[in-house]
Structure to design on (151 residues):
């Protein structure tokens, strides 16, 4: 039986901007007020990226809105957050992103068994002509589906 997952935020732009090579799941270190905001779905990962520093993976530019009931103990909405991965997973990701043109991009934030998780993708940036091709394919699929539903 599949574990219950509730998606909180998605980076839909990432699938357009990047060619996804591989995905992996990581935990996120959050403060109490951040957990409350994430539960309310007040998260934006559209400008978010991950980097490696001192053998650890960090998430940058993830915006978690301030929790209104936290008072003076609120968090910085754009602070850098640590990701939780096993050492061998980190080494594997470091090896992959050292290849030319590959980067770590978060695709979605979700809850799994009561824990906040991020789906990280090892991705390669698309060129302009690749993006045009993606748009063209999407339009063709949409047209095909419309023709099927009309018949």
């Amino acid at each position: 039986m599949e574990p219950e997952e509730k998606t909180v935020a998605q980076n839909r732009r990432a699938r357009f901007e990047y060619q996804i090579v591989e995905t992996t799941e990581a935990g996120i270190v959050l403060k109490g007020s951040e957990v409350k905001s994430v539960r309310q779905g007040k998260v934006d990962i559209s400008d978010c990226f991950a980097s490696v520093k001192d053998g650890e993976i960090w998430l940058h530019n993830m915006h978690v809105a301030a929790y209104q009931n936290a008072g003076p103990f609120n968090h910085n909405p754009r602070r850098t957050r640590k990701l939780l991965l096993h050492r061998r997973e980190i080494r594997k990701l470091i090896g992959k992103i050292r290849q030319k043109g590959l980067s770590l991009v978060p695709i979605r934030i979700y809850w799994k068994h009561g824990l906040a998780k991020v789906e990280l993708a090892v991705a390669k940036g698309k060129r302009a002509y690749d993006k045009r091709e993606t748009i063209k394919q999407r339009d063709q699929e949409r047209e095909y589906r419309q023709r099927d539903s009309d018949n």
Residues 128-150 form the longest helix (23 residues). The two ends are 37 Å apart (CA to CA). The chain has one domain: 5-126.
